[in-house]
């Protein structure tokens, strides 16, 4: 987004009839879609091979290898999504002191959400309850509480 020249070239390429008006994102996802189609093809091949034949053994080996590849791809996609979430969060959160590195290879965001904190003030005989929003960010290795900037 920050490189205007790249954006212009990308728009020109995406509007070219050869690309069939598809975005760069659709071209990046095509290989993964093909892998999942190959899995379906191998499942159909396995259904039609004779049990115990050499073809069944080879098709089973190919299927197992393909399943491992798909599993690795899914894990890498999850890891990238997790890293993107951490980058986005680190841009939104401002620490008073920079002693806590939010982005880490091993850290991933498990759950986040808004809660309401209730404060009970008791200086007088009557209870006074005030509320303010706080956000919880649960990572695999720590819990971070944050509040909106006033």
UniProtKB/TrEMBL annotation:
Stored Pfam families: RhoGEF
All residue ranges annotated as the DH domain in the record: 1-76
One example GO MF annotation: guanyl-nucleotide exchange factor activity
Any Gene Ontology CC annotation: nucleus
InterPro entries: DBL_dom_sf (IPR035899), DH_dom (IPR000219), Ephexin-like (IPR047271), GDS_CDC24_CS (IPR001331), PH-like_dom_sf (IPR011993)
One GO term of the biological process aspect: intracellular signal transduction
Protein name as catalogued: ARHG5 factor
